[in-house]
Design a protein that fits this description.
Rossmann fold, three-stranded parallel β-sheet, 10 helices
């Protein structure tokens, strides 16, 4: 058996085409242009790259984009004042403060200051709580991307044994919560494994769907999965450079070994990564519709 490759690049492209049409209709019928503000503090190269990609995608889809680059020495009060201004700006429907912030800033205080209705990352405690009880305004971007990869690839989720490796607030906890909800594209039995799990292999070998966000290259190997498993690899690890100086990226699973046993698997790169920004755009459109009473 050789696994079907679940291409996040292709599925993200499909969703962006759908969004582009929806955004055009909102503008034509309601004179409504979704607006996204991205806030970057400092000059972290990875953060600059992420913010640039979000800005580029916004413009391509027809979303109004406002990028605010602040110096490294920006104070907590200055950043809080900016968030307050964006909360009150009717042109802005989504606010994204790029993490990590410089160490002198208190991340939680900044994130909690964002109006939950404009929290398109889904990190505010109000949105985390709404997700928990099954009434979310916004699904967090990477977990929602994972769910869409499964749904749009025709993977049977209802009744499946899902094992999530990793318990972060950004991926592990929310995707587990999303897939156990009694609703379409979910209704699975979910197990979470982490560094305190005594025998991870015992759990991963039972998985019909295995989602790995361990933060460690090739943490899951072929002997740890059963035949026919569907594998979603969330990890992106730099393990060296090519002769041309390009970064070599691998995931959190041993792709070459597992693809011979899995029925479907995401690649790294080109799997979960492209979906995250796409889901951010989807949340921004939903935020605009909520603000206009159209959702």
């Amino acid at each position: 058996m050789t696994a079907k490759i679940i291409s996040g690049t292709e599925i993200a492209k499909q969703i962006r085409e759908e969004l582009k049409q929806e955004i055009a209709q909102l503008k034509a019928k309601h004179n409504l242009v979704p607006g996204l503000a991205t806030v970057l503090v400092g000059e972290n190269p990875a953060s600059q790259s992420y913010v640039g990609a979000k800005e580029k995608t916004s413009i391509e889809l027809g979303i109004y984009s406002e990028r605010l680059d602040l110096p490294e020495k920006t104070s907590q009060d200055e950043l809080m004042a900016l968030v307050d201004r964006l909360n009150k700006d009717p042109k802005i429907h989504g606010i994204l403060v790029q993490l990590p912030l410089p160490k002198h800033l208190v991340e939680t205080e900044i994130l909690y200051a964002i109006n939950p209705k404009k929290d398109v990352d889904g990190f505010h405690p109000v949105n985390v709580g709404r997700l928990m009880i099954g009434e979310p305004d916004y699904l967090p971007c990477t977990p929602h991307g994972i769910q869409q990869l499964l749904v749009r690839s025709g993977v049977q989720i209802e009744g499946a044994e899902v094992v999530v490796v990793g318990r972060s607030n950004i991926v592990g906890k929310p995707i587990a919560n999303m897939l156990l909800q009694k609703r379409p594209g979910a209704n699975a039995t979910v197990t979470i494994c982490h560094t305190g799990t005594r025998d991870i292999s015992f759990h991963t070998r039972r998985a019909d769907i295995l989602i790995v966000a361990a933060g460690r290259p090739k943490a899951v190997t072929a002997d740890m999965v059963k035949e026919g498993v569907v594998v979603i690899d969330v990890g992106v690890n730099r393990v060296g450079k090519t002769a041309e100086g390009k970064a070599i990226l691998v995931g959190d699973v041993d792709f070459e070994g597992i693809k011979e046993k899995a029925s479907a698997i995401t690649p790294v790169p080109g799997g979960v990564g492209p979906m995250t920004i796409t889901m951010l755009m989807l949340n921004t459109v939903k935020a605009a519709k909520l603000a206009a009473g159209l959702a």
